[in-house]
Amino acid sequence: MKKYFCLFTLLSALCSFSYGYTITSFDPQVVFSGSNASQLASLDAAVGITGYTLENFEDNTLIDGLSVQFQNISNPSSSQISSVLRTNTPNNNWDGATNFGPNLVGGNEITFLYAPGAASFGVGIGDVESQVEVFVNGELLGILKDLPNYNRPIDNAKEVYIRIDQQSGDSAITEVRFQPLASNGGDVINFDRLALLDSTVPEPSSLALLGLSLLTIVFCKTGFSHTETKKG
Ligand SMILES: [Ca+2]
Ligand SMILES: [Ca+2]
Ligand SMILES: [Ca+2]
To answer: How many Cα atoms within 13 Å fall on the side-chain side of residue 31?
Structure first.
């Protein structure tokens, strides 16, 4: 009986470790109906970002804690950010009149950094011609064009909204990187309606679970040796 209790406790504790960020992707044709306030509220609900802090890329400043690297620029000035805010591709806007459209020049990546750490990160993406890998905290999650619901009906369109979620045991999301598979001559890709939910999952809870697993192993091993001793 004790053996089964031990196994059950151990498995339960281990099953609570679902390491690995998840990425969920949405087809703009399904979730985007327009950019008035109620349509955007519907979009947010459809992609699961209601109540998140939003960066709409309508000006040259970013929300607190968010920074970006692009085109080999690590700490872009407000004028460097302005230089890649695009108004000439209105179909790529998820909100307002502007999107963030840096160029993946010669294979350089685009990285969003969020120092406070997020439990969840969302962003709308468009005009992806090249193969672009998505990394979260250095972990590869997939290739944009291969994601379910990625949809490129025409050039210069919204193609996919992605939401990345931290799982129990994962570190909070501090870095989301978009990296072309191979060096390419240049591919402007557009981001908009970036959404962040601060991480409130305390790391110690994961440590507590790990502790419980280890204690269970020790307890069970000790228990079994006692049983064996009695038998002998
Ligand atoms: Ca802004
Ligand atoms: Ca916008
Ligand atoms: Ca492009």
So the answer is: 25
